[in-house]
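Exam prep: given the inputs below (a chain plus glycyl-adenosine-5'-phosphate), describe the expected output before reading on.
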Amino acid sequence: MAKKKNDTMDKIVSLCKRRGFIFQSSEIYGGITSCYDYGPYGVELKKNVKEFWWKSIVQEREDIVGLDSSILMHPRIWEASGHVEGFHDPLVDCKRCKHRFRADDIENDKCPDCGGELTEERQFNLMFKTHMGPVAEDANAIYLRPETAQGIYVNAVNVLNSSRQKIPFGIAQIGKAFRNEITPGNFVFRMREFEQMEMQFFVKPGTDAEWFEFWRQRRMKWYAALGITTEKLRFHQHGEGELAHYAANAYDIEYEYPFGWHELEGIHNRTDYDLSRHQEFSGKDLRYFDDQTRERFLPYIIETSAGVDRTLLTCLVDAYEEEEVNGDVRTVLRLNPKIAPIKVGVFPLVKRDGMPDIAHKIVDILRPHMMVFYDESGAIGRRYRRLDEAGTPFCVTVDSDTLEDNTVTIRERDSMQQDRIAIDRLLETIRDQVL
Ligand code: GAP
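Solution:
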């Protein structure tokens, strides 16, 4: 029977290292907090999650186009956006052990680590600051972007002029963001360097509530299509005190992680806040001209903002399962086959009688279309288990019957059901299910 334990996070962290999904950054130097590196399976999974998003947001829609803006941007952008002034977390330090905490995590005015006295609350800006050029002076100060959204706003006119889009339309981008989080943690849930998948939808003022509702529902459905358990997803509407400085209305899509319900994605009605600020600070006219009504206006913006790493973690947590099979514990990642890092494992049952040659030929048939893993070492059961742990949806085994009739065994990950299939039908059978 399937069982999920409270120590799921420890098991997932360990599986991620063991199978090459995610490693601690700079590990041989003792590691650096809240930064992680994606290994061979991790990069594939991450790429597939991003493609799954890009396909539904950009490729399948006529009204949204893509962008890839630079991480380093003019520093005035962050003044205009309100991040220099308003992107703060309140922090306190312990006077005794010097540990630092978010003020809103403190329960009884004492240091949670040593019980020591705490300093007064101070505002701590979450943006990483550096310098551009050889002279490290304030005039050359520049920020690593804390969200990808601003790159979209400052390019809105460029995109409009070059893409012939008309309102309502959207601009999407996937890219790195950086935040000097005071309390990072829970593996890749809260990091200091992470990736976002953001889409900004430009609408006529007055239609914003309707579009906000549209995107709120659409984004929830996307997680269901990704294969996330719907009972573990819910909305949380931001109250007055929670709203970001740019938002008039906001909902989080939350997931029930082993460490509690937390934000997975934010959907925001940013009104014309960002465009009006950039218009004011840049002195450029950023209004949209509606050639039917002959009106000029600043569009309102509905934003959908998801974390790549957080989505990937959600997929891992949701897919992780331990079940008892014939007295053994089988660990399996029941990932949606479309995001699985390796789509199919190909095994010769034994390393003789020409079986490896046939298996290599099967690899040659499948490899131009999908990620394939060839394995000829160890007992067949162990080979299946290794790929179950990596979330591989299918395994194909060449055995002595193959030599007679050109059929192979195809085993499905979740049911472990095995069927025989002709080699020349393999590609068409697997392809539609995994791509
Ligand atoms: N542009 C709006 C924006 O950035 P946000 O709610 O601050 O909104 C959006 O962030 C999403 O980015 C979050 O829902 C989360 O998935 C991801 N995210 C934010 N901070 C993160 C961090 N420190 N580590 C990993 N992901 C993070």
